[in-house]
């Protein structure tokens, strides 16, 4: 069973997505990830986008640790339903409406955040958490990262979680990788917008 590790809702159990369609982040990796994000002061007051959210555990952990707005994006109906339940649970515990869910494909949701006429974002995010399913090809991931680069705040951070057997993501010109760390079978990559 997954749980919120720390913060205002620490210890709260979360519903898991039934079946093996999703690949939950282990508590060990989640703790290491969030320790790193907190040491970089990236969570307090942040606007967080959790893509391929699964159960929403990463975004919900962000909310528990002080993010002011969290959007969970999930297309699979079962997983999106679990996201809704977990978002409702954490919002009740935190007595806020911090966490919301958008059902749909990651690319279509990202497209909806950009004004088609101007190419400028309708909303921006300080932290984007990306844990794509293994079947996502490297080209598809590169396309998604390109779309993410258009909705980032000035000092934003993008985290990509992949299998340690996967290559480094192909970063668009607008993003630069600044750190990475392996935890057993999991590899975390961190990138930020290129300074113009």
Task: Describe the secondary structure blueprint for this structure.
Elements (H helix, E strand, L loop, with lengths): L1 E2 L9 E2 L12 H13 L7 E5 L5 H8 L4 E6 L2 H18 L4 E5 L2 H7 L12 E6 L7 H11 L3 E12 L11 E9 L2 E8 L3
Parallel strand pairs: 3-4, 3-6, 4-5, 6-7
Antiparallel strand pairs: 1-2, 7-9, 8-9
Helix pairs in contact: 2-3, 4-5
Radius of gyration: 15 Å
Strand order of the largest sheet: 5-4-3-6-7-9-8
Helix content: 25-40%
Total of domains: 1
CATH class: Alpha Beta
Number of H/I helices: 5
Termini gap: 44 Å
Q: Please state the structural category.
A: alpha/beta
The main sheet comes to:
7 strands, mixed
CATH H-level superfamily title: Vaccinia Virus protein VP39
What quaternary form is this? single chain
Give the overall pLDDT as a whole number: 92
Helix-strand topology string: EEHEHEHEHEHEEE
Low-confidence stretches: none
């Amino acid at each position: 069973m997954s749980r919120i590790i720390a913060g205002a809702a620490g210890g709260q159990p979360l519903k898991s997505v039934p079946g093996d369609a999703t690949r939950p982040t282990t508590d060990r990796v989640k703790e290491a990830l969030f320790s790193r994000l907190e040491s970089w002061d990236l969570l307090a007051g942040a606007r967080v986008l959790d893509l391929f959210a699964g159960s929403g555990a990463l975004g919900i952990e962000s909310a528990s640790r002080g993010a002011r707005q969290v959007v969970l994006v999930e297309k699979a109906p079962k997983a999106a339903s679990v996201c809704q339940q977990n978002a409702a649970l954490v919002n009740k515990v935190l007595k806020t409406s911090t966490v919301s869910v958008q059902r749909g494909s990651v690319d279509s949701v990202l497209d909806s955040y950009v004004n088609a006429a101007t190419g400028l974002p309708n909303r921006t995010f300080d932290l984007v958490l990306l844990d794509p399913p293994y079947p996502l090809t490297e080209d598809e991931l590169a396309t998604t990262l390109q779309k993410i680069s258009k909705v980032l705040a000035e000092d934003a951070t993008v985290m990509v979680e992949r299998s340690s057997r996967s290559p480094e993501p192909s970063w668009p010109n607008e993003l630069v990788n600044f750190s990475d760390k392996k935890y057993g079978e999991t590899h975390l990559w961190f990138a930020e917008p290129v300074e113009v």
